[in-house]
Amino acid sequence: MKERTFFEVARNDYQFLITASILILWLGGAFLAPWLVPQNPYDLTSFDILDSELPPAWIEGGTRQFLFGTDPQGRDILSTVFYGMRLSLIISISAVMIQLMLGTFLGLMAGYLGGRWDSFIMRTADVQLSLSTLMLTIITLAIIKNFFAQEVYDRLAIYMIIMVIGVAEWPQYARVVRSGVLVEREKEYVAAARVVGVSPRIILFKHIFPNLISPLLVIATVQVANAIISEAALSFLGLGMPPTQPSLGLLISRGFEYIFSGAWWITFIPSFFLVVLIVTINILGGWFEDYFNPKLYK
Amino acid sequence: MKLLEIKNLTLSFQYPNKEVIALDDFSLTIAAGERIGLVGESGAGKSLAIFSILKLLKPPCKIKSGSIRFCGREITTMNETELNRLRGDKITMIFQNPLGSLNPVLTVGTHLIETARAHSSLSYKEAYDLACSRLNDVKITRVHERMRAYPNEFSGGMRQRIVIACALMTNPQLMLIDEPTTALDVTIQAEIMELIYNLSVEKKCAFILVSHDLGLVSQLTERVLVLYAGQIVEANATRQIIRYPHHPYTKGLIECLPEFQRTKKQLKVIPGRMPGLDEWPVGCRFHPRCDFAKNDCKEKMPAVTRLKKAVSAPVSNVKRTSSLNTPVAPYVKCFYPLNEKKP
After folding, report:
1. CA–CA dist A197, A220 (Å, integer)
2. Which of B80, B88, B100 has its CB closest to that of A189?
3. What secondary structure letter does DSSP report for B204?
4. Residue B66: CB partners within 8 Å, gap ≥ 6?
5. pLDDT tier at A298 (50, 70, 90 boundaries)?
6. A6 in a domain, yes or no?
């Protein structure tokens, strides 16, 4: 029997279609923000302080010009949210790339080399997992922040956050990859490959590794959502992006101060976008898990 | 010329507190183009013996002593790089389970081409063409389509054909075949075995066929070694061994096979089971199950007794194409060999 291709399966699955289309809408909006949204929130000349704290368009006092209202500086919330989401996504996807590469490489090495290297890598992973990611990133970023002058840090912030979140989460991947290598290398096709004289390095990367891609893809999807949350949390705590380039977390944190003065939309709108983004990514992650696991997939 | 010469090979499992011998003083010689069968019950050490030829033993199993020479080169002292050059090029192996020996994420073409290119400087195109012709050799049609297919799209028999094609990519001189048809059903078994036999004749490739099925082995090989509890108990030309088994164990094995029984009586069985690795009895290892055991069988290990070169007796159901002289004199490891006077 020929297996159904990805698209054949996906086309008939409403859960997939709905979440994927929302996610595409969100991603499209985020990455095309400079061409889509009415205002450039990074450009101080494009907004006016007189427009500050305008409510969303559907509420009395709101205008068509600012669909989701404005923030205390008079920036259009729609624009800042999409720009912010773009930043959040760039940060989280890059961080996940780093996690993937680092975790996969170390996991492959641990499983393949075994012995002392295995113990060293995996015990390091255990130690790191025993500290929460957030704690680790907060400490590291707080230290880094004190090393640099404010302007220098603001310029480097995005790279720092990517690095810190990227490095903090590698044990997740390393564990999965290592256990995968240990399982796969006992399988007969590995012995068969050895028998025909394929070198151990090629066996590891060409024969064993492709068998581990599906669990990795599932973790990576969920980790994108986690990285967005981490970044938002860091920005919320003032350790993330500078106020001139607000990410979703920073927008929520800034708007939080106005929630009791009645301007709820300043914090609510970015929160809504963040929650939808994370929920869709997580549902898709779960969907991929089912898709790749033939035992679960109907 | 001797293609492979194994001398006094002893394999052992080394545990922290004890050492268990798994294969005891194993010797075997195979000439180019010769087909040998290695027969025995599960746990006799058949698979270990052929795994050791490619040094694929997994710890705690180790080569304790002895030598393995392939074309005059010592294998036991080779390092991994040298072994990789040898594996798949001059010696290849066909595994028991064709479902497991192909990687599910790589296409059939990748498997074949990779093998060829690991051992030669063929270009991708040349390797592809070679792979196609090998698939033709194993009677697979629509090769271009099949090259792009994944192993899960094939049936067990087809997969074993692909594994065979893979093994033949580099024109090996020796194939190690580990119960190639246990995972397949009987009709497919006949096809696959015939294919292996014909290809080995055609490509002048020697093979060692490991099996517990003496009937199967007798159809395809010129010489048979019978392994019991880590020792070769009898070695002889196939037709001799079938017609005149000298060791009581061999006799027992033959009597278990319906195809060698002329009368329609109930088949005999060998009573008991083979002892485990750590419970080998003193004396002859077969004596607790042997109908002919006498007192000295229980005390001393029997020495190897050379047998007289037997006169050739044509046996109808043994397929014969060449009449190679058995390079090693037939022998039996028993105090009281059966059939000693008959030939």
Report:
1. 34
2. B100
3. T
4. B6, B7, B8, B9, B10, B25, B26, B76
5. very low
6. no
Question: Residue A200: which CATH number?
Answer: 1.10.3720.10
CATH architecture of B2-90+170-332: 3-Layer(aba) Sandwich (3.40)
Residue A273 within any structural domain of the chain: yes
> Which residue in B80, B92, B104 is closest to A196 by CB distance?
B92
* Contact criterion met (CB < 8 Å) for B85 and A197: yes
Domain boundaries of chain B, sorted by first residue:
2-90+170-332
Mean per-residue pLDDT for A17-37?
Answer: 85
Residue of B48, B95, B105 best to disrupt the A interface, most CBs of A under 10 A: B105
Residue A267 lies in a domain: yes
SS3 state at B293: coil
Total domains present in chain A: 1
User: Mean of the per-residue pLDDT values for chain B?
Assistant: 83
Tell if the CB–CB gap between B97 and A189 is shorter than 8 Å.
no
On whether any CB of chain A is under 8 Å from the CB of B183, the answer is no
Class of residue B49 by CB neighbours under 10 A (exposed 0-12, middle 13-18, buried 19+)? buried
Is the pLDDT score of A1 beyond 50?
no
Which of 54-73 (B) contact A at CB < 8 A? 54, 56
Domain that residue A269 falls in: 14-38+52-292
**What mean pLDDT value characterizes chain A?**
82
